[in-house]
TrEMBL record:
Protein name according to UniProt: Beta-Ig-H3/fasciclin
Annotated PANTHER family: FI19380P1 (PTHR10900:SF77), PERIOSTIN-RELATED (PTHR10900)
Segments forming domain FAS1: 2-135
Signal sequence, renumbered to the chain: 1-30
InterPro entries, per the entry: Adhesion/Biosynth-related (IPR050904), FAS1_dom_sf (IPR036378), FAS1_domain (IPR000782)
Keywords: Signal
Amino acid sequence: SPVDIPSTAIAAGSFTTLVAALTAADLVSAIAEPNGPFTVFAPTDDAFAALPAGLVECLLEPDNKGALSAILTYHVVDGQVLSTDLTDGMMAPTLQGEDVTINTTDGVVINDSATVTYADITTSNGVIHVINAVLVPP
């Protein structure tokens, strides 16, 4: 049986930066059971590594917890949204408060910047879609 979103991300092994960021922002319990269901657009370690040098380390500092939290919650949508539920031009409200825009013309692309590379990893409290870039709130 599936485990919750944080446990699934830890077990996958390709989200160590995301897990470290969630921990630094005190958001692990927020997206863990019994909370949810949630849809998480999860950037891989490679996606975080593609950010400008020093940015991740800077965001992980305690003084930047607010900014880090805003970035992370911008990757989470309330409710379970499977890839089959996504439509072209769909606006999905994030926990951060701003919407992400879904484009389905050529695969699934979020905000014209992050491509879903693996979809529909089901967890006990939602679903994870793997993305190849970090989303930045407007």
